[in-house]
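Dear all,

This email documents one entry for the complex benchmark we are building for the journal club exercise. For each entry we list the sequence lines for every component of the assembly. Then comes the predicted three-dimensional structure of the complex as a token string, followed by one or two observations. Please use this as the template for your own entries, and keep the labels exactly as they appear.
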Amino acid sequence: MSSLSDKQIDLQLEDLAGWQRDGNGIIKSYKFNDFIEAISFMNQVAFHAEALEHHPEWHNTYNVVDVRLTTHDTGGITSLDIRLAKRMEHIIQPKHL
Amino acid sequence: MSSLSDKQIDLQLEDLAGWQRDGNGIIKSYKFNDFIEAISFMNQVAFHAEALEHHPEWHNTYNVVDVRLTTHDTGGITSLDIRLAKRMEHIIQPKHL
């Protein structure tokens, strides 16, 4: 597992609507209709995070979930971050994976 | 519903181990054994938050959940924040409520 290059990251982000680079991580702010939807999203993501053994840093306030993905082991962005981001998008809009 | 006074808040915090004042809110950092325990705690809290119609601001990184409670309607700390904090403590160590 090694960090992706800037070029690789930019290429991956093209397929990840709303995701952007934030230093050694990638971020997205998800907005839902209410708290139940937000926490339900987090739960669905949680199972994928466990399966990937890769976990998000995230903040929730009512209907908003701000996510940051980074790979501590490499200090950068790896394919694990991209995979988890894609699974989040799949949950929101089932087409990715 | 009105904000509690400083005295009232101090008094309530005496019964809430690990909770402290943070401006117009109260905060606590919960540490668990792993991610599953952390997200399970958040889920249990979520049902109480919905029941109280009062929701936390919280951040999760793996096994840590940092919580901040405040009441936006009054711009201060109200009995709702205290009730939600007590329910969180009850989840951790069933005795409060």
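Observations: The radius of gyration of chain A is 13 Å. The mean pLDDT of chain A is 96.
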